[in-house]
Amino acid sequence: MMYGKSAGGRPWSPQSLKNILLSEATLGYLMHRNKPVLGRDGNPVKLCEGLWDRATHEALKKAVLDRKVPWTRHSNRDYLLTYVALCGQCHTRLYTQTSQDAPPRYTCTARNKGWRHAQHCRPAPLINAHLLDSYVEEWFLRELGDGLIYETVYDPGNGIPERIAEQ
Predict the structure, then answer these.
(1) Could you report the per-residue pLDDT of 97-108, keeping only the tens digit for each?
(2) Which of 48, 92, 138, 155 has the highest CB neighbour count under 10 A?
(3) Nearest residue to 126 (alpha-carbon basis) of 94, 90, 82, 100
(4) What is residue 57's three-state secondary structure?
(5) How many CB atoms lie within 10 A of CB 125?
(6) Which helix (DSSP H) or strand (DSSP E) does residue 27 occupy?
(7) What's the rounded Cα separation, in Å, for the pair 84 and 18?
(8) How many Cα neighbours within 13 Å face the side chain of 25?
(9) Cis peptide leading into 104, omega within 30 of 0?
(10) By the 8 A CB rule, do 44 and 36 touch?
């Protein structure tokens, strides 16, 4: 029971189970936007005893994140905006279409799939892949091409400060 409602009885999706296993809420912390809430003393707020300890959590994280899903489908062609381009009307991801009689193109398939938020996505956007790729490449190089790129690198350390903070 949660928030006064009984469980709905639906099967869990693999992503839901993965999110639960990776969440630090299982360690007993109060969470907000997938991060532990810090108290006035700067330490994470602990609501209850965790389901497991930090070492078990890190081992679970490693085991879950190291798994490779064998059935992910990827295009055998390199398109610049794969997983990036969004429909201008319904804001869902654009997919690539290929055929023998037409060049590759990006198109929105959300309305065809019956998604409710895309019912007014007419006509479904369709643009030749080379046109959109060249336009975005030109824009990117014009706006960001000469800038410096900084990378933030996180060093997880050896885990001793986390164990000390939990005690």
Answers:
(1) 888 888 889 988
(2) 92
(3) 94
(4) helix
(5) 17
(6) none
(7) 24
(8) 11
(9) no
(10) yes
- Six-digit token pair at 106? 């990006």
- Torsion sign, CA atoms 71, 73, 76, 80: negative
The 10s digit of each residue's pLDDT in 49-89 is 889 899 999 999 999 888 876 666 665 667 788 778 888 88
Rounded distance, CA 20 to CA 27, Å?
11
Give CA angle at 29 (26, 33), nearest 5°. 95
Say how far apart CA 34 and CA 37 lie, in whole Å.
9
Read off the amino acid at residue 2: M
Q: What does each C-alpha distance from 15 to 54, 61, 70, 159 come to in angstroms?
A: 22, 14, 15, 27
Three-state secondary structure of 91-138: CCECEEECCCCCCCEEECCCCCCCCHHHCCCCCCCEEEHHHHHHHHHH
Quote the tokens at residue 5. Answer: 């409602």
